[in-house]
Amino acid sequence: MNRDVLTIAGINFQSRFLLGTGKFSSKAVMRETIVASGSQIVTVALRRIDVEHSEENILEFIPAGTTLLVNTSGARNAKEAVRIARLAKEAGYGNWIKIEVINDSKYLLPDNAETIRATEQLTAEDFVVLPYMAPDLYVARALVKAGAAAVMPLGSLIGSHQGLKTQDMIQILIDEIDLPVIVDAGLGMPSHAAQAMEMGAAAALVNTAVATAQDPVRAGRAFALAVEAGRMAYLSRLSGPRTNAEASSPLTGLLENK
Amino acid sequence: MRITLNGKATAFENDLLLRQLVQNFCRQPEHVIAEVNGEIVKTDHWDQTVLKEGDVIELVGFVGGG
Q: Tell me, which fold does domain B2-60 have in CATH?
């Protein structure tokens, strides 16, 4: 089998499973989950430090060599996303940014128009930009033009665990967009992640489903295996569904019944 | 001297450098990013940044997120 790597912005990754670091019961469990899942790209958020109860920083718990993808969660428009990105870069952990512009608190859907604006601005400032988006071909094309390093369409609403509700739209992006398509949000079970990978997605990102499992370490591993299985299935070019039955055992040399 | 620190009015009796503020309030200053009046102040400039009455300071860092 040929070596299969995920390449984003010229960097090669063996793992196609991206893990979010929110909602874990402890930073130690988060660390153990990152290790067990083999994830090489993890997302983090940027927030005000709690000056009254300053606690140990999450960075101390992320294994060395992991690529940090900082999200711009909390941004309601392009301007706020750009501000968060600039602050994040100052921390000195690279320039990878997951643009997340949300101004609807009920559905948490990304604002595609503001996302395109933020992508244009941040690629001009040499950030590696991975925009979280509602899957739409024209928006994805605009993001390609704006210099995005990948596109991250949502499978279903953030934290909903509903799987690939947007399957057909994501398939169009996979078929038409010449950038890694990373399915993000809504993947609630390993089978959802496997399905995305079987369709030809480049990678999958999961957070809530893993972090809120009773055993997050096992859940992380399960998702990572599903991503790997789905990818391998995609590369194997399965022959796909048929209408009629087709015997899998030979129909010759049968013992005749007399 | 009164400043706004992470959205909260905070008063200090003496003059204060940005570095002192970060060290007083953050357990791990090496992971802190500071913004004064909307402008990012790089770590190497924390010793030269004297806080003034009315300054708006944001001290931010990474947390878990998806």
A: Ubiquitin-like (UB roll) (3.10.20)
